[in-house]
Amino acid sequence: MKWKDGLKSVSWNLIIFVGAALALGNALIDSGAAQWIIDQLFALSGIAGASSGLLILLILAFISLTSHVYMTSHAARAVALVPPVLYLAGSLGLDPTAVLFISTVGMDYCLTFPVSSKALLMFQEAGGETYQPSDLLRLSSVLLLAHLGLILLFYYGYWQWVGLAL
Fold first, then answer.
1. What's the pTM?
2. Residues 6+ apart with CB under 8 A from 46
3. CA dist 87 to 68, 82, 139, 160, Å?
4. pLDDT (tens digit, 9 = 90+) per residue, 67-91?
5. How far apart are CA 151 and CA 159, in angstroms?
6. Which structural domain range is residue 139 located in?
């Protein structure tokens, strides 16, 4: 492959996106904005004062499942969300391993917008007829609920019995 051909085949939009997402993630963390977002999410959701295991599980799963909307970089989500989630586990007397596991299962969901996932962005840029952002939004509105249902099903049917009980 010649150098010019190689340069033409590089997804420059993706490289710029990844660089910008990392810079934005670092800026959110360094400025304290990420912590502010997490504090607001915890306050608005009421999870810090929840006493019901099911309610805590639902709120934790919902925050994690929608975290890709607040921060598009998966690495930035993990860096920004893990410490507050572990703090939440400690303050509510929950098993931190279970809380972190459930949170990461939710943080891995990233289907709502093309910028939510590098794979989605690459596929959309591949050329030819692909999906539109509105298609992803419709698909995500169904799959987010399915993902939430699967988290509940696996928690009550398996995870809590293998040592991942809240």
1. 0.70
2. 59
3. 21, 9, 33, 21
4. 888 777 777 788 778 888 888 888 7
5. 9
6. 3-162
